[in-house]
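Why do we care about 3D structure at all? Because function follows from shape, and shape follows, mostly, from sequence. That is the central idea of this module. The next example makes it concrete: a single protein chain, its amino acid sequence, and then its structure expressed as tokens.
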Amino acid sequence: MVEIKNCTVTYAAEPNHKALKEISLTIEDGEFVLLTGESGCGKTTILRLISGLIPYFYDANVEGDIYVEGLNAEKSTIYDLAKMSGTVFQNPRSQFYTCEVKSELVFGCENEGIPEEEIHYRLAETVKRFSIEKLLDRGMFELSGGEKQQVACASIDMEKTKIILLDEPSANLDYEAVKRLKELISIWKKAGKTIIASEHRIAYLWEMCDRTIIIEDGRILRNLDKEKMKKITEEEVRDFGIRSFVERNPFQMDIEEATARDSILDFKNYKFRYKKGDRIFEADDVKIAKGKITALIGRNGAGKTTFLNCLCGIRKCKGDLVINGKPLDWKQRRKRMFMIMQDVSHQLFTESVLEEVLLGMEEEDRNRALTILKKLDLSTVEERHPLSLSGGQMQRVAIASAIAGDHDIILLDEPTSGLDYKHMVDIAEILKELQSMGKTIIVATHDGEFIESCCNRKLII
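And the structure:
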């Protein structure tokens, strides 16, 4: 059982802002609870309280009491709390300790002193359940974002904790991987696990969960059981900042592919060889439509991020890239293109959000930067350090930098990962506005709702 009693949390980095305000919540053993609401509303903070990351890792003042399986979190050691729960972070990269997938999967069990024979049994069971046999001998740094998310979930499955905490677990997963995650959660639920998930994309979860708790500005706005949740309309869901109830398969969407007539970018004999093994990414006779928003669709690990990295010059590969009929060299690519990475923390460099946007401009224009921040709902955090923001907020800061740079071609790698409905629509509207200005946009995404809202071309890898 998890009990949170009259809890208020204030992070040291934000002394004037209460992340949670007098929250009280009881979660019974074996219950599956879904936490949802707009980005930055306090969902992740609740998970951090339960796991012990607050205050043992994140510096925060906590008022109230938290009990996890009978342990008083404030008086217990992080070692004792860690045995109670396992967490899948929104950014899975931040929870890895080793360099290879197999080592990562067994790491937690080895630290607990579990017998080797039992570890081997669990490993075989988990690998089969997650269908990750092909990843076992891969390096962690070679994995796509979605593959890392799968490994993070599998690592938690290995440890067999009573409580499972999931922070945006579907954020980087393709349609088939989400289906497997849904099956796994069902297995966990049948096994009597207590599951607490923070999610915006609720289409795959809401019918499975026992309760849905909607959070707004650090307070519990609605606490809905399954029957009450069924009565919520799509309009109400969107007002709460939650994604649609309807699951969408990106591969089945009726969107045109680029033709020779409307293309701006043409790829000929594109090849990239990965460091280990014989894995090769190939793209031959691929066309990208000029002035359109192209959805780059593919399974986790298919090569979407590699394609974008090669396109903008981050990775060198063989083959020719022609723009408007003329070859484009590496230097020209970097000048004309801007890429927003899947893990945006890699490209946030300054001490404040405003400075980050100004950094992307050839000539600093403070008023224009403030206008961009306002459009992306970032005005209230302009003086905050970018890395202190929620995942969704960091994503928007990177997009603000891309807009500020005024590049011809903008590449985005999973730009709606971790975003609520309102901010997903904001991003879609901004991309459509950029399209109206003649920009060419390529978006690697699994987000069917986002594709439906703004993309008018597709490329399947």
